[in-house]
């Protein structure tokens, strides 16, 4: 009971805190708006300060030079806008006649002749009816009554001082705020390190690592957003100005500059910028050609910018969903007015980062984030529960396009089946949904197999592979997945239906040199696999048996012990490792699975095939990331076992050595996912490492090589001498490459258990 009360109390405190923050933001708007604008400009200008500093300019002079460049650009833009506006004001009277013609056409649109004559006749009749008769003249002019006196109100003449005050008054407020913002920007640039340390001290509550990560994440996202937004706006405003000049709209330079600047305002900015030249074209052209052409330019540029330029330049978004951006724009506009609309996206990015790094505010990340709230297995399982076969197929094809078929089976489909099995064991899964999951799962595998039907496959040596489900339909589904992946590798594999798998059959008695694989999905996988294995040992004499216990977190040696296997190396826990083991068996690259040589030594993956695979992997990674170097850095190496190509390209030997720096490798091994540093020079953890600076390494991305037994053996990484931000697809490729590499190593250990690294 107390736990429930504490949970509700915690939610109430979180809600009350959010309300209090909103109230403070609104009450202190006059103070916070200039501070937020200054922080935004400081984020935008800080890369230029860093650029000057790296070229040997002292920090003070770098800041002064940056501010000078900024003010000069601001002054130049102001001068262009002012001169163009004055020129436009001087030319507007020339378009008065065109405006009158258009207004007249709008008031008196052209109508057919018959309708015009009819309207004229009706007008005459109405006029005659309203004409008074001779005896009905109005009285009062000569009846001796006093007539009303007309009153005229004249405004008093305004003095020159009052006129100046009326004109300058509305401008003084914005100019004062602009001056305050510039002063704050300079102060923030000078004291950026001190402000960062003070902020971390205030918000960290002793968790310096968490606060530092959050601050670095927010700064990186906001800076990148502003810089890319500036580039996107320039690629939007410049073509608009050129197109308007070709059309003949006066002052095209002014409209191009305004289109660039106003596009910083989300949603409304582009159309506000379009309204001015569209209105002007109405006055300039007596017809409608210029108006339609001007409107078409803005519509065309919006489509191109939103669907091509932004996608190309942003690469990865701010991480905020489109709906959240729209709601945030409304919220910040309500809170701070037009300034809030301009600041809405950067401020929402900061709120999103806060939600990602502060445990109590995770709901902000879920509400604002663009990524799926559910993990891929849970998302796929939800589609199963909804009995939506089309959505299941769409999710599968999308995942396979981004990753691979075996990754979809290993990382999505099999974990989703395990969730279904857990719910079935506890009685939480309705029977109708159980039947759909099995039936829909079979249809999905068949549909994916049809997708692969026309893909050419590399011919493989003949190998009789037969899958045996250990217990139920879920085991049979995973066996069908494995058979599908094997067929994509050119191997013919068959799955014995569940109805026949539990009974002796001629194909099992005369197995010969067949390879049988047992498919067992948790829970209760070990017991079912043990019983099936013992039966097959009696019935399939001479066959090699591979057991798949589909639990990627389990330790194969521990499973071998629990299963009571006579020989090590016959258990796999992922489809990827199972495929590699069976492909190795088919190609004869390692002899029989777990087979010993005649000299008693373990079989090894010696020869060129494994070396070529390593070389191909790291070359593909280098091409995917667009970097000159990718390499495998191993924590411990046995020359007889670890045959690894150190670098795909020898162009940056120093960078290859730098990437094996112990500090950097330790950080990758400690990370739960792919470890990325966009710019090492800006990362305080590694910017001072001599081997990195001497090697010229600026970008680094690495994934840990973790074997099935949990042992960390090394890092697969890519490096570059210039900063870069990798795409999500590239990071997926790096993650998949690391998994494929560890799968190769695990496959080798199946045939060579003596050289296996210790557990841990």
How does this structure look, described?
The protein is of the alpha/beta class and 760 residues long. It is built from 29 helices and nine strands. It has helices at 2-27, 29-54, 59-91, 96-107, 113-130, 160-190, 192-204, 208-247, 252-262, 269-284, 289-314, 322-336, 338-357, 362-368, 376-385, 389-402, 405-425, 431-451, 473-488, 498-501, 506-509, 525-539, 556-563, 575-587, 608-625, 653-659, 662-670, 690-695, 728-751; strands spanning 465-469, 493-495, 515-520, 544-549, 571-572, 629-634, 675-677, 699-706, 712-720. The longest helix has 40 residues, at 208-247. The protein is elongated. The two termini are 40 Å apart.
Give a short overview.
With 760 residues, the chain is α/β, with parallel strands linked by helices. 64% of the residues lie in helices and 6% in strands. The longest helix has 40 residues, at 208-247.
Features:
760 residues; alpha/beta; 5-stranded parallel beta sheet; elongated
Tell me the number of strands: 9
Strand order of the largest sheet: 2-1-3-4-5
Strand content: 5-15%
Number of helices: 29
Query: What integer value in Å does the Rg equal?
Result: 37 Å
Low-confidence stretches: 589-608, 636-661, 753-760
Which structural category fits the helices and strands?
Answer: alpha/beta
Helix percent reads 55-70%
CA distance, first residue to last residue: 40 Å
Q: What average pLDDT do the residues reach?
A: 75
What global shape is seen? elongated
């Amino acid at each position: 009971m107390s736990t429930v009360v504490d949970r509700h109390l915690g939610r109430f405190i979180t809600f009350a805190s959010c309300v209090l923050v909103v109230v403070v933001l609104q009450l202190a708007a006059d103070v916070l708006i200039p501070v937020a604008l200054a922080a935004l400009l400081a984020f935008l200008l800080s890369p230029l300060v860093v650029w000057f500093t790296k070229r040997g300019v002292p920090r003070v002079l770098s800041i002064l030079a940056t501010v000078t460049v900024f003010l000069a650009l601001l002054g130049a833009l102001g001068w262009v806008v002012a001169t163009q506006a004055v020129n436009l004001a001087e030319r507007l009277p020339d378009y008065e006649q065109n405006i009158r013609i258009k207004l007249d056409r709008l008031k008196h649109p052209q109508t057919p002749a018959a309708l015009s004559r009819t309207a004229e006749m009706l007008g005459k009749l109405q006029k005659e009816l309203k004409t008074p008769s001779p005896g009905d003249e109005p009285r009062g002019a000569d009846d001796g009554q006093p007539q009303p006196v007309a009153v005229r109100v004249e405004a008093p003449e305004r003095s020159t001082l009052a006129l100046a005050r009326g004109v300058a008054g509305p401008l003084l407020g914005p100019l004062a705020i602009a001056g305050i913002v510039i002063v704050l920007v300079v102060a923030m640039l000078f004291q950026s390190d001190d402000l960062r340390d003070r902020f971390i001290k205030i918000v960290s509550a002793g968790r310096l690592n968490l606060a530092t990560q959050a601050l670095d994440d927010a700064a990186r996202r906001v800076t990148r957003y502003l810089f890319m937004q500036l580039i996107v706006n320039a690629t939007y405003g410049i073509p608009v100005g050129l197109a308007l000049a070709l059309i003949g709209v006066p002052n095209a330079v002014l409209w191009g500059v305004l289109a660039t600047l106003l596009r910083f305002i989300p949603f409304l900015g582009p159309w506000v910028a379009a309204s001015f030249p569209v209105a002007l074209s109405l006055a300039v052209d007596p017809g409608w050609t210029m108006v339609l052409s001007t409107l078409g330019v803005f519509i065309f540029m919006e489509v191109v910018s939103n669907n091509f330029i932004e996608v190309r330049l942003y690469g990865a978004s701010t991480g905020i969903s489109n709906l959240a951006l729209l709601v945030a724009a409304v919220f910040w506009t309500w809170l701070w007015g037009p300034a809030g609309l301009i600041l809405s996206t950067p401020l929402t990015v900061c709120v999103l980062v806060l939600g990602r790094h502060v445990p109590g505010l995770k709901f902000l990340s879920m509400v604002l984030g663009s990524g799926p709230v559910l993990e891929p297995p849970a998302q796929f399982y939800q589609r199963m529960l909804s009995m939506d076969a089309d959505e299941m197929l769409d999710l599968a094809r999308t995942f396979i396009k981004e990753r691979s078929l075996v990754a979809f089976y290993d990382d999505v489909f099999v974990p989703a089946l395990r969730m279904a099995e857990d719910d079935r064991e506890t009685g939480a899964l309705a029977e109708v949904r159980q039947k759909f999951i099995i039936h829909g799962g079979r249809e999905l595998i068949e549909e994916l197999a049809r997708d692969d039907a026309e893909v050419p496959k590399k011919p493989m040596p003949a190998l009789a592979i037969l899958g045996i489900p250990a217990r139920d339909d879920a085991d049979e589904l995973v066996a069908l997945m494995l058979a599908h992946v094997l067929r994509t590798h050119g191997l013919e594999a068959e799955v014995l239906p569940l109805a026949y798998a539990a009974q002796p059959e001629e194909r099992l008695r005369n197995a010969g040199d067949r390879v049988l694989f047992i498919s067992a999905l948790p829970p209760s996988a070990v017991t079912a696999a043990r019983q099936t294995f013992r039966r097959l040992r009696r019935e399939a004499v001479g066959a090699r048996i591979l057991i798949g216990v589909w639990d990627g977190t389990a330790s194969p040696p521990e499973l071998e012990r629990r299963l009571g296997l006579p020989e090590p190396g016959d258990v796999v826990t992922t489809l990827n490792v199972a495929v590699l083991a069976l492909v190795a068996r088919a190609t004869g690259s390692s002899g029989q699975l777990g087979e010993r040589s005649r000299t008693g030594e373990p079989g090894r993956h010696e020869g060129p095939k494994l070396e070529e695979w390593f070389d191909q992997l790291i070359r593909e990674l280098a091409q995917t990331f667009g970097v000159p170097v990718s390499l495998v850095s191993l924590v411990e190496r046995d020359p007889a076992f670890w045959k690894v190509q150190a670098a795909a390209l020898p162009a940056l030997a120093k960078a290859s050595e730098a990437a094996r720096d112990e500090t950097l490798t330790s950080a990758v091994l400690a990370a739960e996912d792919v470890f990325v540093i966009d710019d090492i020079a800006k990362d305080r953890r590694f910017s001072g490492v001599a081997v990195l600076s001497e090697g010229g390494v600026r970008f680094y991305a690495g994934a840990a090589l973790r074997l099935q037994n949990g042992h960390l053996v090394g890092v697969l990484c890519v490096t570059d001498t210039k900063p870069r931000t990798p795409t999500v697809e590239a990071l997926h490729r790096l993650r998949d490459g690391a998994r494929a590499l560890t799968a190769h190593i695990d496959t080798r250990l199946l045939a060579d258990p003596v050289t296996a690294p210790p557990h841990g």
